């Protein structure tokens, strides 16, 4: 199991990115969340089997058809990642409000 925090830049809001990423994560049986940020990025915390998390990050590099991703930042801040409650693995993947 791995936990990865990503921030997606580009034309990623108003194009269905959050809903599409959440649907793809659920299809892969991953846990975590996705939300818009006021700076125009999309942020996600993803947990699950390493290969499935990597596949979702690869999907996020393209995004849904209307999106145009310019870059993805991958956060390896251990403290932030360790704060993710493993019990959330049972609750699936959620869309959160904008912050």
Describe this structure in words.
The structure is a single chain. The chain has a five-stranded mixed sheet with strand order 4-1-3-2-5. Strand 2 (31-36) and strand 3 form a beta hairpin. It is built from three helices and five strands, in the order βαββαβαβ. The longest helix is centred in the middle third of the chain and has 13 residues, at 50-62. The mean pLDDT is 90. The protein has a single domain, classed as Alpha-Beta Plaits. With 99 residues, it is of the alpha+beta class.
Total tally of structural domains: 1
Low-confidence stretches: none
Number of helices: 3
Structural class: alpha+beta
CATH topology: Alpha-Beta Plaits
Q: Globular, elongated, flat, extended or rod-shaped: what is the shape?
A: globular
Strand content: 25-35%
Instruction: Kindly report the average pLDDT value.
Output: 90
Oligomer: single chain
End-to-end separation in angstroms reads 27 Å
Assigned CATH architecture: 2-Layer Sandwich
Reading the helices and strands in chain order gives EHEEHEHE
What is the CA-based Rg, rounded? 12 Å
């Amino acid at each position: 199991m791995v936990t990865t925090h990503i921030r997606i830049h580009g034309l990623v809001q108003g194009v269905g990115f959050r809903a599409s990423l959440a649907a793809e994560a659920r299809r892969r049986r991953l846990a975590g969340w996705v939300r818009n940020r006021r700076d125009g990025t999309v942020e996600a915390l993803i947990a699950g089997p390493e290969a499935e998390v990597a596949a979702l990050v690869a999907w996020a590099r393209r995004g849904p058809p209307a999106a145009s991703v310019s870059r993805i930042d991958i956060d390896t801040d251990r403290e932030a990642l360790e704060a993710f409650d493993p019990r959330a693995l049972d609750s699936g993947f959620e869309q959160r409000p904008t912050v």
